[in-house]
Amino acid sequence: MKVMRRGRLRFVHHTRLILRMRFDIVLHRRRFEEEASGQCENYAPTGLTTGVPTVLTPHPLPRISQFQFIHNPRPPVRVFLFQESPSMAKRSAKRRQSSGEFNSGHYQDEQAKVRALFPGTSWSPDEKEPMRDQRYVKNVKPRSEGQARLMASIDKHSMVMALGPAGTGKTYLAVAKAVEKLEKGDVSRIVLSRPAVEAGESIGFLPGAMEEKLAPYLRPLYDALSDRLSPKRLKALMAEGLIEIAPIGYMRGRTLNNAFVVVDEAQNCTYGQLKMLLTRLGWHSTMVVTGDPAQTDLLPELSGLAEISNKLENVPDIGVIRLQAEDIVRHPLVASMLDVL
Fold first, then answer.
1. Which helix (H) or strand (E) holds 275?
2. 287 and 259 Cβ atoms separated by less than 8 Å
3. Number of C-beta neighbours around residue 190 at 10 A
4. CB 67 within 8 A of CB 79
């Protein structure tokens, strides 16, 4: 009990000592401020009531980092006066803003520094129709007659088969139409699917979850999405499930209502897989199947894209668009190479 009482008395003594030291520091600081303003009064600090003289060594300028030594029978105690930090300045600015203080002179000076973004025009970012195309909100226009027929068929039919050589824009136009319908509210989600078939070689098992395993195969679709959406918007849509990655192996039994389905590289699907995929179409949905029967990574007799497209060409309300070499929009050498290869 004596030890606890002695410790408690020592704590109370130290607390009083610190409070008195702070009081002396406030008085000295006020004295320096009055000296700077020319209104100094003759008064001295009270000092500590212990009878020990107090020696203070202040800096004449206020708000400057300094420390003062206070002599005591106990070891010396250092009292620090820190300069106002940037965070404290921000908080004080916020308090001034919330209290309604406004520096009109500073505002006018800053307004004088504003320059037109496009000199010689009256364009403003607030206008609904800006004078320049936005980066991620741009209109996709066909660059050939075949692409125009493909875009018109997607707008007209609920199921479209887009066949053609590499570089004709099949995947890009399908993804662009999917994003357009999602932004307009015509569909509630985008479903991306592609067979997990390598181009002639296998690199083994891939680590991660299902989305991570399919990421290398869906890279062309991601590239088209990133061209139509900002990275932040794309990540948000995928996190919310509005853009869904659906492996072909897990599609059986599903009904895709109110969705835009894009099946890419369908030439690597068998006849049974394509039959299963095409029958997943639900109400208020659109499905676009893209592929090139001449570039299958399966055995020629295993790919079912050519056979299914020939059968569905005679079915009404299904669009089968066959793009040609003149519809290639990549490098001109691509069309020249495909003529001889």
1. helix 271-278
2. no
3. 22
4. yes
